[in-house]
Structures are given as structure tokens and as C-alpha cells.
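hey all, quick one before standup. I had two proteins in the batch that finished overnight and I want to keep them in one place so we stop losing track of which output belongs to which input. First protein below, input sequence then C-alpha cells straight from the run.
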Amino acid sequence: MTRASLNALNQSLVNSANFYGNFISKLPFSSSSASSLQTIENSQCKPLLNPLYNLLPETRNPNKIVDLISSSLKQNNSQLTLLQNHIKPLIPHLGCHEITRVLLRFQSDCSSALTFFNWVKNDLGMKLSSHNYCYIVHILAWSKNFSLAMNLLCELIDFVKDCSNCEDLFESLVSCSKDCNFDAVVFDMLIKGYVRKDIVSYNTLISGYCKEGRMQESKYLVHEMIGNGISPDSFTCRVLVEGYRKQGRLVSALNLVVELRRFGVSISSGIYDFLIVSLCREDRPFAAKNILGRISQDGYVPKPDIYNELIKTFCRCNNVADALLVKAEMVRKRIKVNLVAYRALICSSCRIGKTHEAESLMAKMLKSDILPDPHICRVLIQCYCDQMDIDKAESMLSFFAKKFRIFDTESYNVLVSTYTESGDMEKLMELQDRMMKLGFAPNSLTCKYVIHGLLKAKRLYKQKLLGS
């Protein structure tokens, strides 16, 4: 038989198959939906594909769709996208039964099974059945991918909840376990999945009440949760604490945390961090330090930022001694003090006139490889000028310029202003020369101070002449 006659025979078979396929599709027992699989039901309700489909080429034969997809998955998971275009006419014939068949073929290869499941759900946009979900959950749990299994189980809970005919998921999981490998932990996960989903409902209600400032109703719901055996999670605690903080009721927030701990609720370190920082921002460092001491006994390990925040707050409240105690504790625990904390300590020491302590702190800061900033320079220069220690102020200004390339014009102007008060213009001009050689450039304020100094010097000279 020639190639031409073979081609003619093949075309004849295809045409015949198409004719009979169209004929059968019009029979009463066939589906009227274009996207559903044309099947003949047997006594066990399993679909039997039309045998005439076997007369079609493989890529147009619905009987081959499971084999084609399985073959592509075995080659490379990324082949599904290419296959999608190749078998486009067959996609409407990919039903829930065919999806299950593919999943069962790859129950020992959870990666391929999950790739296929996501391809059907996301790329093809098909609505999967609850049994399709049950099979992929079993496959993932059997392969010890418990996190992914739990996520899909929660999706399944939502899926069943939204369906008009409420299914018994436990029965569905048991039914599907007969056809594939399974781990009994799936049934424990189902219970946890249902618990994870109140919790979402409770948290939504609690969050809504907190946003409206109805903290009493929120607290009642928390008690109801605990009474129903549902433990509040970190989101629940955070929403409640933030709700109390917005109302300026941090004490109530602290009392709630203590109460939740009595009920055995685990409080995350993030909640404690939030409470301590909130107390600091309300300028209540002693309360913050007190709660830090209490929770540290329970294993809470504060981050360096928490200690630094405490130091900054104590300094802002002019409690330098307590700030230094916190710093000493950090040194003892080998926790690094940051620039913000050192700046607060130096500024606070200068504010109360303790320049020696401020210099000592800066020396320790430099030893820790933390470089000063213009603000520290400014505070120190101002402090020495206030004490009329002009030589020390100039020496410090030169040190910052030479060592750290900090040319702070504001600090320079403070020094110029101090010289003008004395009325000694000769010394002021000499200072100008020295500073310009270092790299300081006068600005409009500098000129204003110099003019003020000249006027004052002139006035003093006149007074001197009149006095003589």
C-alpha cells in the first residue's frame, strides 16, 4: 500500500470518527455542556469514554488526555504550558475523574502532583472537586509536606462551606484514602484546619470592635474563644494591645497580657516589644523597665533596639543615672549600644553640665567603632561655651573637623558668638583665620555675629574713653 493510500485511509477514519462522535453527542444520554466529558455511565458511575475517539489522532483523542499529561509531567514539569497549547481541543474533556487519575499516578512524586494540581487550578482556571482536593492533601501529607497540605486543607474547608450541598470532609478523606497512600495525621490536620478557620472569624470580629474602640466587646469575645477551647493567636493579642494603646490605656493592655498568660496563651516577643516601646514613647521608662525585668524571667530576650529605646527615654526624662544602668547591663550581656543611645547619653550629660562624663562616653563610643555625628559635636561645643571654656570648645571643634571631617557650621557659630560676647575682636579675627584654614566657611549668621562683636567692641571702647 502506498503512502498516499495510507494517508487517504487515515483521513477516512478521522472523518468517520468525527461523524460518529457528532452523532453520539446528539443522543439523549450525552452531556449538553461543551466543556464536560462525553461519557457512558456504567453501574459504578465511572465514566466510559467513547471508543470511537480512538480513531482520532492522539492529541485529539480524549481517551489519551491522562496519558499525555502524565507523559509531560514525567519529562519536565514545565512542559505543561507547552502541552496546554498542543492539546487545546482536549482541555474541555479534562474532568474531575481525569484529574484524579493523574494525581494517583503521581502519588509518590508530590512535586509533580502539586504542579499538575496548580496548573489545573490556576492556569486552566478549572473548578476542582472536593475529591481532587482530598487526593492532593493525602499525597502531600504522605510525603511529609504538612504545611502545604494544611494550606490546601483550609482551602477545601472554605470550598465545602461555600457549596450548596454541605459535604462531610471527614468521610470524603476516608473515602479517598482507599485509593492512595495516606497518613492518619491528615485527620488531625482537618481538626486543626477547622480551628484555624474560628479563629479567623473571631479575629475578624475582634479587629472590627478594636477599630471602633469597643474594647469591652473585644475582651468578651476573647473570653468566649478561650471558653470554646480556641487559643488566641499573636494576631488576636496584637490587635487588642494596639486597641488599648490607641485609647491611651496601656495599663489595661498590660493587665490583659497578664490575664492571657494565666489562661496559658502564648505571648509573642513582638507583643512585648510593642508594649515596651509604647511605654517609652509615652515617657514612662520605669514602667517599661519593670515589665522588661518581669518578662525576661520567663525567657523573653529583648532585642538591642529595646535597650537602646530605654536609654533614649531615660535620657529624655533627665534620668541619666538610670540610663547608664541600662547601658551597663547591655555591656554585661555583650549587647552593642548604638549611635542613637550614645547620642542621648552624651546630650543628657551635657544638659546637666557633666562634660567630663560626656567626653568619657564619646571615648567609649569611638572604642566601639561608632563614629560621632554633627549633633554630638554641636552639643559638646555648646556645653563648653556655656561654661566659658572657649579653648576646650575650639579644641573639640578642631578635633571633629580633622578626625571625622565634620564641619558643623552651627557649632562654629556658637563658638563665634561666644567670642563676640567678650568684645575682644582681635581674638575673634584670629579664630576666624584658624577655622578657615581648617575648612570652615562663614555664613550669614557668622557675619551677623561678627558685626555684633564689632559694635560691642566699639561701645566698650567709647565707655573706656569716657571713663578715663
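OK second protein, same deal, sequence then C-alpha cells:
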Amino acid sequence: MPHRPRVLIIAEAANPEWVSVPLVGWSLAQAMRRRAHVHVVTQTRNRDAFVRAGLVEGQDFTAIDSEAVAAPMYRLANLLRMGSGKGWTMVTAIASLSYPYFERLVWKKFGARIQAGEFDVVHRITPLSPTIASSLAPKVAAAKVHFVLGPLNGGVPWPKGFDSERRREREWLSYVRGAYKANPAHRKMLRSSALIIAGSRHTAGEIPAAHQHKTVWLPENAIDPARFNLTAPQDLSGPLRACFLGRLVPYKGPDMLLEAAAPLMREGKLVLDMIGDGPMADDLRAQAERLQISHAVTFHGHLPHDQVQPVLARANLMTFPSIREFGGGVVLEAMALGVVPMVVDYAGPGELVTGETGYLIPVGPRPRIVAAFRAALEALAADPSGLPVKAQAARRTALADFTWDAKAARILAFYAAIPDLQAA
């Protein structure tokens, strides 16, 4: 593998102006561009954002117009998901039907160049879902070029006791999600991949045993130090300041946080900033009124990305009781600012936080999570002296191990190890 390999990155979703998966696709592709000879292939909806970011079409990236299939399927997904921000398994299922057309156009555009040996690696970064098969993988492998898949992430099981939240999220298809493993195209993709990057321990565990030797773990999310460049002062002179950052939806547990923190808030020992919007917003405000804590909680609603950092950096704690978080990017953002995370020890956040950098609350039924959060917050309100040390460790870890550049460096090391993986 050359020191600066020639990489064709497939990132159907990649956009610097959006969040979630498109921001992951963009950020990782950009970090790879700084370390390798990269050409990015994305969907046409991202073209203008790429150009505004300074990339040159044809030279740095190619936009594939798959709207003939993608647009009507997107409208169908929005219809079937039964509510904005809900039914993500349905959205992914519909995407798995429309995505093959995108890859068909990618091969039509780049197939001859791949077969001619212009690229050392073809790396599909997005979609992240392990359920969406790639028809490119066997074609690239047949051309004697390494096909790399990932980071793959998703499908974390719902914890026991949260079926009502599952139904409120319209996650009907999640009960039969495992059916994707029977798809012959999915099995062929795994066989044809030279390297599989799993974005979570759960996803790594879902890869069949026959392919474990070429599967590596690398958390999906990372941070851009330029976007998170403040440092939380960790002021311990007043009441504890906690912050919640995320969509106001059942599985992220904002209602559990209000219930857990209510006694301290009524006593004036804790104040809370809630950043985000969603279908629970009105219910949460009503809950705050019932609990008599409205004076101690500020609902900021949705904030532009550049306005999130100043609010988050005021906090001592990032309190995040999500019970089904695949990546946990907001946890890394808090750590980068020196805000100590308190998270449920399950899925993504549980893989990012350690006892040195934050507080891990055991997963369990709702009453147990509420009680454990309350106990941890009460202990800190009584003695917050350990927070500055954890804050420093969290910031140090985020900036050393969880930047996009650090992730790109690890991926290049994975590329270099492909011959050893194939020989295993």
C-alpha cells in the first residue's frame, strides 16, 4: 500500500452543512483527503455544499444524480415513517431499495477506471447502516482492488422495559430488522470486502464469524477541534450546571433526566440547559411545570451549530440518558469542551466514556435509570471536587483519540494491514 494511497471514497451522504450521517460522511472524507489521494463520490443533493466548501467538481469530487429513484423513494419513506423524526428503521429499509441505483451509476462512471488500476482502495463510508448491501464490492474485488466497508453502525437492540418508547418512535420494522442477513447481496458484499470497519462493538459482533478476521472496531463519531475550541471553566462556586443536547424524543430520555434531577433543582442545587427540539418539547415543558422546576431549566430549542458551543461550555455535566444511541457524537463534543459526560452505559456512549472521563449509569428499566441518575447527581452536588480532574481527562482523550484526523490516521493503518488480514 503506498504511503499516500489513491482512494475512491463512496459517500452517498456527505454534507458539511448538515448533521448526523451526512456530517460523518463529509468529515471523514475530508480528513482522508489530508492524508491520501482521494476522490469523493457523493449524491447530487450535496453538490452545492461541496462547492461552497471549496472543492472542485471533477477534480476533488463527483456528484452522482440518482434523483430519478432517490427522490420518489425519499417521499415514500417520509410517508411511511408516520411522523417527522420517527420510524428510522423504515427510512433505512426504503433507502436499501433506492441505494443500488446510486451504486449502479457509480460503477457506470468509475468502473473502467477501477478496472484499470487507477485506485488502490475503494472505500464506502456511507451509508453507515450494515443492512444496506453494496453491489460495488464484488465488482471492485474482481478488479483486484481492495474494497473497504465502513464504519458500519446501527441496529442496537432496544433495552428491556422500553417497548412503549419503541412504539412511540414508530419502530415497527425493528422487530424484523435481522431479515437483512438473509439477503444474498449482503453476504456477497461481506465476502468481497478486504476490510470491514465496525463503528460500534454491537455491529462488530453482528459480522459473521467467517469475516471477523478482517473486521476492526473504530467508533463512528469524532470531533473537529476547530468547531469545539472553548474550554468549560468547571466553576464549582454555585449550583451544578447540567446540559442535555439532542432531539427531544423518547429514546434519548429527556423526561427521565427531568424526573431524576427534579429534587436537586427544587432545592436550588442544580440548573439545566436543554438544547434541542422534537415531538416531546411541549410535554417536557408541562412536566417541568408539574415537577415545579421550570425556574431551573432553560429550553433553548434547536440552536445553530455555532450557538451550541457557548451554552454547552457553561456546563459542568453533559447529562445524557439515551438508551439507544448508535454513535454518541454529542458526548464527544462535550468531552472536547471539558464538560464531563454522564451517560447510560449502553451502545455508543458507553463505548466512548470511561470511569476516568465521566460517569457511566448502568442500563436497566426506566425506574432504575432514573434512580441511578438521581443518586449520581446528588453525590456530585454534595461533593463536586472530582469534576475538574475528569473534565481534563475527557478533553485530553477527545482531542488525542477522537478527532477526525486521528481517525483518518488509524484508517490508513488499517489499509496497510489489509494483506495481513487477507492472509489470516
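Flagging for whoever picks this up: The chain has a mean pLDDT of 92. The two ends are 18 Å apart (CA to CA).
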